[in-house]
Amino acid sequence: MVAGASEGLGAAFAAELAARGMNLVLLARRGHLLAEVAEELTGRHGIEVRCVVADLADPAFVEQLASAASGLDVGVVIYNAAFAPLGPFLDNSEPGITEAVDVNVRGPMLAVQALVPAMCDRGRGAVVLMSSLSGLQGTPHIAVYAASKAFNTHLAESLWYELRSHGIDVVACCAGAMPTPGYLKNFGKKVPGMLSPQEAARRTLDALGRGPRFVPGTVNRMTAVLMGRLLSRRSAVRVIGRSTGDVT
User: Fewer CB within 10 Å of terminal CB in the chain, N or C?
Assistant: First the structure.
């Protein structure tokens, strides 16, 4: 199951799983894009795809997901969906903040609770929660997004320990910037070491079993070490703040 699968990294995860012979349950809000992804993957790989058109800000998505997954042995859960209010925190609207919390924080918890118990009963499975390098320290001008990604990192690490005795592997993917449609629309510029969504998805799936935290890409891993270990917290936030100062 891939949540947030209509484009970008979510669609790349879906394509990589399909290439490995896995049938898919794809979940996203934009049904027309989801249908395009499903059509391409069924035609290319001969797999079965079930689409769930739902708003992950609405907790009712869990009922739709459970219905679509009924009778299936869901072996991999990937929660990639996210919403990012941009600009200074005090300029963020209350609806935007609430949507970010609903999609980025509540959503992955509900998805895990809906699908993982059956995986535990079977004694095998994997969960990928998408985090971000921006969640490893405060990130000005995308503060709500960064905070929600820190939450996902800690949730995944906790679940990695709790679920490993049930045969379930969990990893937080702390990805760097990548040229997804959403990133290009809001930021535009490419940065050194940027991976394609396809490469990030492939490396993350290959990292299962080496959790609980994975940073895809050599430059991104060097950045994580620099920000998390070599610089003081104050210096790290200042460095990030200078690079995100024009985000609106």
Answer: C
